[in-house]
C-alpha cells in the first residue's frame, strides 16, 4: 500500500514560462526512457519480485521515489505552460513570432490537458507498457535498469542545454544527480549478482546442452566489409568469464541449409498451382 | 549496401510440426527482445554511428548477422506450421484434442500469413520502433545491447524447455551460443568505453553544474517500509567510480514545495470559477 | 444497411485557409474524443445492442449522425489546407514567417493525404479501437457516451478560440450545439436507467456476495497527507442510493498480508539460487 | 512524494493456481479500464489539478490507493501462476488436457515475465497512455472517473463468476466493494460540480455565441429507420437544465452544402488532370 | 450525411454458436484488411476526394456499403457467442473439453464486450488508423483498394473452411461475392486511370528531372545469391509503358560513398572524445 | 545469411543542413510506406516464400536492396541534422527565426537519437509490423508491393519539391528511379500471375460454392445519392475476366433480416432486466 506527501521531493521552479520547452520535457516524462518508464518498471519488478527481501525492498524504494519524479515533471510542465491560451493560436495567424511559438508547442497541451502534463512523449505518442521490463531474472532486470537510467540521464543532459532558465536548470540538476546515483545503484547490484551467478544470463542454462554449439559462443562473424571490427576487445583475448578465447572469423561462410519449405494445403489459398511448383521436393 | 546468401547461417530443423510452439516462438522473433529488435537496433546504431570506424564496423557486422537470425526464425516457424490447415478449426468443433491445439495457435498464422512468420510477438502485438534504441552515445547504446541480448537469451532458454523436439532444440542451441557471445561482446566494448569515459553516462555533463546537487548523487532514499534495502552494496561503501560514499537515508523527508499552480485563462474552459477557488494565491 | 446523402449535415465554411489550425482540428476528428470515436462507439454499441428496441434505434440514430460529423470535419480540414503546397517548405528555408507556418503544420497533410483529413489526432497518432467502449451494459455505456460528449465539447470550445475565422467558428457553433444536445440525451437516458437499475453498475451483482466486504463500500481512505479531502460530499452524508453512510478514514492501515511469493521452477531461469533465498518460507 | 508500506491494502489469496484465470485477470490490471488506468488517471488529474485543494487532495488520496490495487493484482497473478513451468508446454504435445491449459494461458507469463503480472490486457496488448484522461476541467474528468469505475466494476463482476476459488473470490469482493464506493464518490463530486457550474460541459462557453445555433441543441435527428427512438426521455420533455424542450425530428434533411473541394497545386501529384476535372467550379 | 436502414444488407445466420470461430472472425472485422479498414478507407477517400464527381460518388457508394458489412460481422459474432457465459471458465478448470474451448476464445468477448464484436483483430489488437490510405492520388488509392479487397477475400476464403456451419458459410459466400465484385470494380477503375495518366505513379513528376537517373529505372539489381530471379518478366523485355528495356545486373556494385558523418556538438553528449575519433576527417 | 558492403548503393549528399526537412524525410524512412516498410515486407515475403524459386529469389534481391535504402535515408537525415544542437532551443526563446526552425524540427532528433534517423514517421509515430503484408498468396502480395511502391514514390515526389538543395534532390532522383523500376517490376510479376491464376484472388475458392451468391459478384450498389457513379467502367460492360456483365443497381434494397439478438446469461451483468426486454422474441 502507498501513501502520498504533499511536498514534492525537490523544488520545481520555472523563472518564466516556455511552452516549447514544455513539449520537449514530455520526452523525459512519458517517453521510452522517461520517468513513467522507470516508475512502472521498478514497481512491476518489485511487485513481481520473488526471493531475497533486500532486492524487493530496494526495488520498492526506488519505484516509490520515481512516482514522485513523475509528479515533479507534471509540476514543471504546468509551470512552463502557465499563461498559454487558445487565443495564442488565433494571434499566430497575424504574428510570425507568435506563429513560431505556436508551431513549436504540443497542441494537446492546450486542447487535451488544459496546460497539464500528458502521458506521452515529446511527439505526443502515448506511453505504453512495452517500454518496461520485469522478467523474473534479477540480473537481467538490473541491466535493464542501468540502461534505462543511462538513457534517461543522457536525455535530461541534452534537455539541460535547451534552456537558460535557471529555475528549470536547478530542477534538472537534482534529477541528474538522482540519475547519477541510480546508475551507481544498479552497477553495484549487478556486480553482486554477477559474482554470485556469473556474467552470462541466464547462467542456469544446462552446460551440457551448450557443449555441441560451444565454439559459436566465442566467434565474431565479420559480415560487414572491412576488418576494423577486429581491432576491438570483443575480437581479441578472453571472454569476460574466462571460459574461452575470442575468435575473429574474417570471412565466415553460412553453415545452414538452403530452406525448401513445403507447399501448404489447398484451402490456404496460396497460388502455388502445378505450373508454379518446379523447385518443390 | 547489402547482399544475401541463400544458405541459412545455421541449420534450422524441426522433427515434427507443432503449431502451438510456433506461436511461442513469435516472442523471440517479433517481441520486445526478439531478433527483429536486435537486428533493427544494431543496424540503426550502425547507420547513425559517428566517430571511430571500429565501432561502426562492429555494429554493422552484428546487425547484418541478426538479419539472418530473423530469416532463421521465419524458417523455423514455417516448419512448425507445416501441414496446418483451416479445416483443423472446423474439426476442432468435434474433437477436444484438436480444439486444444486450435485454442493454442495464433489464428493469424492461418488467416493472415498462410503458415509463415509474422512481425509480431507471441500475443500477436506488432513489432514497433519504440523497442529499439540508437542514442548517439556509444556507452549508452552498448548497455542497451547487453541488456537486449540478456533478455533475448533468457527467453530462448525458457523456450528451449517448451519442446522436446531435438531438431528445434539444436536450432535453439545455436542461438543460445550466439546470444552468449553477444553478451561477451557488449561487455568487452562497455569495459573499454567505461575506462575511457567513466562509468556514469553521460560523463560529459559539466562537473561544475553538478556541484550544487552533488550530495543527492550518493544517497539511497528509503521510501518503502523496512530497512532490508540497507543490506545491499548500493547502500554501503563507495560509488563504482570512487567519487563518493553511499549514504542510506532511513527516513527521508521531501525537500520541495507543495505545488500551487495558477488558475488558467478562462478560454481553456476549466471549471475553476470564483466559488471554487479558495486556495489559490 | 446505410445510405449516404450528398449534402453535409451542416454548412462547413472557411473564410481563409489556415494550415496550422488544420493540424489542431485533427484532435476533434481522430483524437481520443474526436468524431471518429463517437461514431465508432455508438455504431458498435448499436450493432451489439441486445434488448429493448428503443435503445438500439437511438444508438443507431446518433451513430449515423456522427458519420456525417466525420465527413464535415474532413471537409473543414480540406478547406483549411487549400492552396498549401510542397514548395511552402522550400520557401520556409528562406523566410521566417513561412518557416513558422511550416513548423506548425502536420507534415502528413502534405506528404501523406495530399491536403485531406487524416484518421489521426493533432500529433499524428493514429485513431485506434481502444478509444471506444461497447460493454453490453447499457448504463455503463451511456456513462461513457456522456463522458465522450463532455470531453468532445470541451475540446471544440477550446478550439473555437484558436481562430477568428467566422466561417470556421460558425461550423464549430453547430458542433457545439449538437454536443450540448448529446450531453442532454445521455443524461436523460442515464436517469431512466438508474431509476430502473440503481446507480451502481452492475446492479445485478449478487447482494449476498457483497455482504462480507460491505463496509469497504462506504469508506474514504485518506492516503494523501492532509484532510482537505474530508470536506467534500464524498466524505460526508449518505451514499447516492441511500444504502449507507460515508466514513472518512483519516489514518487508514493496510489490512492485507506482506506478500511472500514462491521460488519458481528452475527452468524459468530466475537467478534465485540457494545463496539468494533467505527470506523464502 | 510517495511512501510504500509492505502490507497489501487487502489480503490476496489463491486456493489453487489457475494459469488460464491469470490471463483473464490481466484485463482488470492492464486493460482499458484496469487498475493501471485508474491509478494513472487519478494521479495525472491530481498532479495537474489547479484550484480548490479539496479536489486535488481527494484525487491524490484515491490515486495513491489505486497504486496499491495494481500491487494487489500483481500478487494475485503471481499466485495464480505458481508452479507453472516451460515444461508444461512440451508435455502439452502429448496430453490434450495439458494442451487445453497451455492453449488458454498467456505465453508471455512464462516467456517474458517469469510468472509475474504484465502491463498488458487479457490479450497481451500493452497498456497505453491514451486510456487515461486529465483535461483540466473537473466536471469532465469526474464523469470520466465515474465511467472508468463503472466499466471496471462490470469487468470484475464478470471475472468473479469465472472462478469458484474462494480465495480469489474474496479478493474480488474487496475490489468490488471499493469500486462501489468509488462510483458513489464520483457521483457525489459530480452532483456538487453540476450544481455550481450547470450540467453541460463546458458551462463557460459564451452563451451569446451559442445563440445562432441554439435550436440544434434540443433536436433529436432520427437518422435510423423506425421511430422507436422517439419513445425515450431524450426525445420528449425538457432538457435536464430546463433551458429548452426536446424536439424529435422524424425525417431530418441535411442543411449543409454539397462540398466541392478545389484542385490542389500540381506538385502534390494528384492525378486530377484536365481530362478528369469536369465537375470542378 | 448518412441514414441507416434496419435490415442487414444480407442475411446473417448461425446454425450453432462457436466462440472459437468468433475469435477468428474478428480478423475480417477489425484486422488489417477487415471490414473496418475498407469502410474507413473508402469513406476517407470519398470525404477527401477532389475532382471528377463520378469517382467521389463511387467511393461514397462503396464506403457506405462497407459500414453495413461491419454491421453484418458484428451480428455474426454476437450469434457465434450466444449462450457463452463467465461460468464456462470456472467449469473449464474441471473439464478438458471446456478448457479447450475457453483456451480458444477471446477473453474480451466475455469480459469487455459482453458477447459483442470488438474493434480489434483476431489477436485482440485494436484497429488503428494506420491501416488505411487516402493519399489524394486516385490511381495510388485505387491500387490500395484493389489490394485491400484481395487480402480481405483471401482471409474470408480461409475462414470459410474453418467452419462447417452452413449458416455461417452462406454469410461468407455473400461476402466473398461482394469481395469479388469489388476486385473487379477497382481493376476497371485502375485501367481507366492508367490509360489517362500512365502506369507509373505519380505520372506527373517532371520528366526532365528524371533524366539523370533514368537508367536506374529499368535495372534489376541481383543482390541475392543465384540468378533464378533473372527468369521472370521483370528481368527481360520491355517496361509495361514501353519506355525502356529491362536490364538484369548480375553482379551489381554500389555507386555511393562510404559515409563519414561528422562529430556533433559537445552538448549532445555523445562519447566521441578525442581518443575515440581517429577516422574523422 | 546477409553481408554488408561499406559503400552506399547511391551517393547521398546534402548541400546544406535543414533540420525541418529531416523531420519530413522521416515519413519515407519510417512511415506507413517508407523504406522500412518495403524492406521488411519483401524480406518477410521472401523468408516465408514457398514454391517456385524465381519468386523467392526475386523477393530476396529487392528486400536486400531495400535494407540499403534505409541505410541511405539514415545517412541523409544525419547530414540534414549536422550542426544542430540543444542550444538552438534556448536561443529560440529570443529569436523568432530560430523559434520557427525549432518549432519545425522533431525534438527526438536532438533528445533521443542525437542527430540520427529514427524508426518513426514524420510525426514521430514508431514504425510497426502492421504496416507490412506477407500472406502466402503471391498475387495478393505483389498487389501489395505495387501499391507500396506507388505510395512511396508519390511521397518522395512531394518531398522533392520541399527542398531546393541540389544534393538532396539528386538523392531523391535515384530513389524515384528505383521506385519507378519497382512499380514496373511488380506490374510484370502481377501480369504473369494473373495469366496463370485469373485476376480474382484467391482464384482457388471452389466455384461451386460461389454459385448461390454469384449474381452479387457483378452488381454495383448505388448507396450514395446521385447516379454519377454509374458513369464509370465499373458500372458498365463486362468483368475483367469476362465471366459476367456488371449491373448498376440504382436503388438497392437490403436483403437481410432485422437482427434480434438474444438476452445473454445473467452473469454477464447486462442491465436487460424484465422491464427493459419488450422486443425480445
Automatic annotation (TrEMBL), chains A, B, C, D, E, F:
Belongs to the manganese catalase family. Gene3D superfamilies: 1.20.1260.10, manganese catalase, domain 2, chain A. This is Manganese catalase family protein. The keyword Hydrolase does not apply. Mn(2+) 2 binds at residue 66. It holds the Pfam family Mn_catalase. Residues 227-267 are annotated as: Disordered. Mn(2+) 1 binds at residues 35, 69, 149, 182. GO terms for molecular function: metal ion binding. Its cofactor is Mn(2+); Ca(2+). Keywords: Calcium, Manganese, Metal-binding. Binds 2 manganese ions per subunit. Ca(2+) binds at residues 57, 61, 222, 224, 226. Coiled coil: none annotated.
